[in-house]
């Protein structure tokens, strides 16, 4: 992947919070706990995004700071029960600021940083480009899921 393509993906990654916030705009309490055909409610989605983004932040930092780091897999279904009936605002803010701090790191990465390699416990070889490809569309996919649940 060349620098121009990475820049495009980083911009899309950075925009993920806006997409989710827009999908949640004006959401009612009833809508927060209504699921679409895929079974996740908007409340669960927001908490999942916070959990996933914070895990992703750790993964990115391990890739940048450690030599040949181990990148742990993430069982999203194991975390899902933690969503329960908690308010979404703290998780939405955690998601927002994790995205922002990660974006700041991504903007400053050198070509050598992009070539760093770790080992993912489920996927094998794992680079910062792999990381970006995993996370770039995650928020957009879940924003669409929130819109489906809202009808």
How is this structure best summarized?
The chain has 151 residues and is mainly alpha-helical.
Description:
It is a single chain. A three-stranded mixed sheet has the order 1-2-3. A hairpin with a 3-residue loop joins strand 2 and strand 3 (124-127). It contains nine helices and three strands; from the N terminus they run ααααβαααββαα. It has 151 residues and is mainly α. The termini are far apart. The longest helix is centred in the middle third of the chain and has 24 residues, at 42-65. Helix content is 65%, strand content 7%.
The amount of helix comes to: 55-70%
What is the fourth-level CATH superfamily of the domain at 3-14 and 45-136? dinb family like domain
| Strand-pairing-aware structural class | mainly alpha
Q: Would you tell me the overall average pLDDT?
A: 93
User: How much β-strand is present in the residues?
Assistant: 5-15%
CATH level 1 name of the domain at 3-14 and 45-136:
Mainly Alpha
Main sheet properties:
3 strands, mixed
- Second-tier CATH architecture of the domain at 3-14 and 45-136: Up-down Bundle
Pick out the low-confidence regions.
none
**CA-CA gap between termini:** 37 Å
Query: How do the SSEs run, as a string of H and E?
Result: HHHHEHHHEEHH
List its salient traits.
151 residues; mainly alpha; Four Helix Bundle (Hemerythrin (Met), subunit A); 3-stranded mixed beta sheet; globular
List the helices and strands and how they pair.
Elements: H1 3-14, H2 16-24, H3 29-32, H4 42-65, E1 70-71, H5 76-79, H6 89-108, H7 111-114, E2 117-120, E3 124-127, H8 128-135, H9 138-150
Parallel strand pairs: 1-2
Antiparallel strand pairs: 2-3
């Amino acid at each position: 992947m060349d620098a121009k393509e990475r820049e495009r993906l980083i911009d899309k990654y950075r925009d993920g919070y806006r997409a989710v916030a827009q999908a949640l705009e004006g959401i009612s309490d009833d809508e927060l706990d209504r699921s679409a055909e895929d079974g996740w409610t908007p409340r669960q989605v927001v908490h999942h995004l916070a959990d996933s983004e914070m895990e992703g932040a750790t993964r990115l930092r391990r890739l940048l700071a450690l030599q040949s780091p181990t990148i742990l897999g993430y069982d999203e279904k194991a975390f899902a029960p933690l969503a329960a009936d908690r308010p979404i605002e703290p998780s939405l803010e955690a998601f927002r600021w994790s995205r922002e701090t990660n974006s700041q790191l991504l903007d400053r990465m050198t070509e050598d940083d992009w070539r760093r390699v770790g080992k993912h416990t489920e996927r094998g070889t794992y680079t910062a480009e792999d990381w970006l490809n995993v996370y770039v569309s995650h928020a957009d996919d879940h924003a669409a899921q929130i819109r489906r649940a809202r009808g």
